[in-house]
Amino acid sequence: MGMFRVKVSEILEETDHIKSFKLVRADGKGFDPYLAGAHIDIVGPTNVVRQYSLCCPPYDLDAYLVAVKRETESRGGSAALHDQLDIGSELEVSAPRNLMQVAETGDRHVLVAAGIGVTPMISMAYQLEREGRSFELHYFARSRELAAFTELLEERCGFAEKVRFHFGIPRDEQPAVLQEILTGLTGGSHVYTCGPEGFMERVLFLAGPVVGEENVHIEHFQAGELADTSGDTGFEVELDSGEVFEIPADRSIVEVLQENGVPVDTSCKEGICGTCVMGVLEGEPEHRDNCLSASEKRANDQIATCVSRARSARLILEPF
Q1: Which UniProt keywords apply (predicted)?
Q2: Phi, psi (deg, nearest 5) at residue 139
């Protein structure tokens, strides 16, 4: 996985617990093109790598913009990013990767965000607006004071009339609001959501029957519940080169491959970033990740090698 250095050119206090960071390339060059909805890996001051969505227009290649919520109990080092970065600080980041992007077709596109989950939705809204497509952005937060980018979305984004804020709505009242948001959508519409796990599950549950599960797009930035590993057994992995490796019950595919000199890029090692995904040529994966979509998992032609396992005795894999 290619990494490069960036400099912090601007820091804004979006809320008491969220800061946004504008990043420019340390070598003064522009960034390469990327698709809206992408995220990057950031190596923080404590050398912890975590993923952050790009929330800038994807056609503006002069700078990246990310937002970081301080999570004092997090292992991701968000507090270090808040406390140790200044204007001019340098960081190492990856090229953008997409686990969620705007569908190429669709009569309507509805972006539904909660909390810090608004970040990838802003980038996608910029793209939809530029392409002249029909969309709405719905932003749920506990209060205006806790919502990032309100001033941007109300005054400076260029699509303020398509933004709807939903502040302070109790959890048990959210389904009714979501049902209203989904009114009028069809099987040709697309719904995109990012936020706390329970919120995204609620959106999927309500939107799936309306637009079809295939047309509900979810961005995860936290690992799911730990799988029950008590019944795990070993299996074989064969690479398209013909090499065969035994994967013990207590080891991951990526661990075994890397130990044997097979280059497999990794980042989160929790099944959420998609860095380690490989293609499946034969065999049946047992998916335990949060990076592949429901349709990708049903296709069984990809596997997140850091957490997922095999239902069949052997998987034949190829790198992407």
Answers
A1: 2Fe-2S, Flavoprotein, Iron, Iron-sulfur, Metal-binding, Oxidoreductase
A2: -120, 110
pTM of the complete model: 0.79
Which domains does the chain carry?
A: 3-94 (2.40.30.10), 109-219 (3.40.50.80), 235-319 (3.10.20.30)
Count other C-beta atoms under 10 Å from residue 223's C-beta. Answer: 16
**Amino acid (one-letter) located at 88:** G
pLDDT, tens only, 36-83: 999 998 998 888 888 899 999 999 999 999 999 998 665 557 888 999
Q: Could you identify the residue written with the tokens 């292992």? A: 75
Q: Which amino acid is at 272?
A: I
User: CB of 224 within 8 A of CB of 165?
Assistant: no
Give the residue-averaged pLDDT of 223-239: 79
Write down the pLDDT at residue 224: 52
Phi, psi of 13 (to 5 degrees): -85, 100
